[in-house]
Amino acid sequence: MGGAAPFGGDDGLGGYMPLAVVVPAGGSTAIHWVQGNHLGTPVAVTDGSGALVTPSGYSMAGFPGQVRQQAELYYNYYRDYDVSLGRYVQADPIGLDGDTNPYLYAGGNPLNQIDPKGLTTAVIFGDPTSGNPFGHVGIGFSNGGMYSFGTNTPCGSSVEKYLIKQSSYRGGQVYSLDTTREQEKEMIESLKKWCNVPLPPVSVSTWKQAWNDTCATRTGEALEAGGFKHWLLEPGSPFPLDLKVFVRKFSGQPISIPKGRPLPKNIDFDRMVLK
Prior knowledge:
The protein is of the alpha+beta class and 275 residues long. The chain has 2 domains: 9-108, no CATH class; 119-274, no CATH class. Helix content is 17%, strand content 25%. The protein has a 5-stranded antiparallel β-sheet. It has a 4-stranded antiparallel β-sheet with strand order 3-4-5-6, with no helix packed on it. It has a 4-stranded antiparallel β-sheet with strand order 7-8-9-10, with no helix packed on it. A hairpin with a 3-residue loop joins strand 12 and strand 13.
């Protein structure tokens, strides 16, 4: 296909992403080739002559986020789910950090959890404090750690340790966004340029610079780099509360983080969802 990128490669744990599938053809079998776009995402299937092949049948049930493809596999944007095995056929792209079994779907609990894309980005809001009446916002990745500016948090550090530290003096909320590895890569690249750049001090002489460079503007810029856009709302406000309104358009119910108490025991820190 014109402009299609090669597809297939290492799945992160020594496996291999599929380049082709073998399907029944009369009394024999045929090879159908998986074609990818510039990101390596599979977008079409062709036969040996190069003709486009339409997957037949969509009657079997899959879980949320799954689209049935060839050979009874359900495509979850980044991995394929085999309904006959009840598991993915490729390993989790975050490796063993996701689970001791990297091939499970939704932690082996599909009735209570979903895993539409296999990766999660957590936008974490901190409540106002006596020293900061505007609150705070940072962003963490299942495949890249925590990024929070103005809180002495090393880039790429533990999301769980960040929440423990934050909850010692303020409450907060965690909003989970389903993302792809490509989206996470773009967001992390946007954030990395700020890792050694402190937020500007707030004073009469620097208020304009401080207004245009806050924890909210840096996080919002990263979300835009990851493709999160809304026709009515813009993530460029300097205030975390405005960014929270934007994030709510892409997330479900947040996880509440209480102040001065242990973190909820049912948080899955690899996917930032409730177990």
